[in-house]
């Protein structure tokens, strides 16, 4: 798995998944404890998954702490302006203009291609 994909999304949810897989690997290692080589491989896998899970959990905690810290530094009046209805409408209008221009450009390119093929 790509390292960027591991850190994207919600790391606390991902950490639970990795910890669960690590726990299952530990159970599997106990089940195959009579075979030394396989037991070592399973323990290694379990250790790696649990390690990644713990690292993701710590990363999620740091990420949440940093988010709270940044949000506490933003003044209340700025939050009010950003979440106001006129601001939301402005963002929608800009998005519609940009998306509208793209679709018009695509249709004009199609029309040009059709015109060239018909000639």
Question: Summary?
Answer:
This protein has 119 residues and is mainly α. It has helices at 3-7, 11-31, 36-73, 76-82, 85-118.
Word description of this protein:
By secondary structure, this protein is mostly helical. Helices cover 88% and strands 0% of the residues. The protein is built from five helices and no strands. Helix 2 packs antiparallel against helix 3. The radius of gyration is 26 Å and the shape is flat. The two termini are 51 Å apart. The mean pLDDT is 82.
Largest sheet: none
Give the amount of beta strand, in percent: under 5%
- What is the typical, i.e. mean, pLDDT? 82
Series of secondary-structure elements, N-terminal to C-terminal: HHHHH
Low-confidence stretches: none
Number of helices: 5
Global structural class:
mainly alpha
DSSP strand count: 0
Globally, the shape reads flat
Give the N-to-C terminal Cα separation. Answer: 51 Å
**Oligomeric form of this entry?**
single chain
Rg computed from alpha carbons, rounded to a whole number of angstroms? 26 Å
Percent helix: over 70%
